[in-house]
Amino acid sequence: MKQISVVGAGTMGRGIAYTAALSGFNVKLHDIDNANLKQAKTSIEELLQKSTDKGFIDANRVKATKQQLNYESDLHQAVCEADIVIEAILEEIPLKIEIFQKLDQYCPTHAVLATNTSTLSPTEIGAATNRPDKVIAMHFFNPVHKMKLIEIIKGLDTSEDTVQIVKDLGETMNKETVEVNEFPGFVTSRMNCLIGNEAMNMYMEGVASAEDIDKALKLGLNHPMGPLELVDLVGLDSRLRNMNYLYETLGEKYRPCPLLTKYVKAGKLGRKSGEGFYKYR
Which of this chain's residues are annotated to bind NAD(+) (predicted)? Predict the structure, then answer.
């Protein structure tokens, strides 16, 4: 496996592309919006510079990583030589199915098609293609270059060969992997959504300030980041989509906090909009 294509140049897509290139793979990062691609390139090069300044990587590795990264707005050109494609677009099943049908058409027959979903069904996505045995979910975590875990979720028809390919890929990218049986929300998203939703309910009820709720979980339960800080990082709109899906599939305990819905309607989406449960410059 030499060529990786990443579809979607948002926060997760650019993080996956950066980590894959840094691990020695040739990477094509695709987005239909050239402005997103330009922003992704700037972000990746800034991250490379920071890593160099801190002594994590040397100048030769920076040069090699830049050479191994290509940015492509045409989907066919981005994936036509791929050994594996990792999709990282919005958590909406119709959009993912549409992309995977195109990937099935454009990619080599041997290519594995992976979705970086945190909740959705690889079985449903794979069923829309002619290669369900080669469709799988690889759930990366933000920030990709720092977080050690990849959740691997196989669909009903995913082959063991495909599972092994993505496990080997994760190892090459210096990640730990866990294999999860497909079920809505997998492991981490189910837990994260419950904890985050309860934190939002407590904040709405006036139990404590956002700062003190986050501080309590960081210092009392040894969480590296508070649940309200985390939802600001991932995006309140993304969290609401996940919560709605889990509510529809798993029931009442995943009903989204009313405050989350209200903030999204107000455009308070977290770090990317400048304000969520905290304000950002």
Answer: 8-13, 31, 91, 96, 118, 142, 272
Q: Is 226 annotated as a binding residue?
A: no
Domains delineated in the chain: 3-181 (3.40.50.720), 187-270 (1.10.1040.10)
Asked if residue 12 belongs to a known ligand binding site, the reply is yes
- Determine if residue 8 is labeled as part of a ligand binding site: yes
Cα angle, residue 134 at apex, residues 149 and 111 outer, rounded to 5°? 95
Does 38 carry a binding-site annotation?
Answer: no
The tens-digit pLDDT sequence of the chain (281 residues) is: 789 999 999 999 999 999 999 999 999 999 999 999 999 999 999 999 999 999 889 989 999 999 999 999 999 999 999 999 999 998 899 999 999 999 999 999 999 999 999 889 999 999 999 999 999 999 999 889 999 999 999 999 999 999 999 999 999 999 999 999 899 889 999 999 999 999 999 999 999 999 999 999 999 999 999 999 999 998 999 999 999 999 999 999 999 999 999 999 999 999 999 999 999 98
Q: How buried is 71 (Cβ within 10 angstroms: 0-12 exposed, 13-18 middle, 19+ buried)?
A: buried
CA 221 from chain centre, in angstroms, equals 25
Nearest to 136 by CA among 164, 106, 109, 171: 164
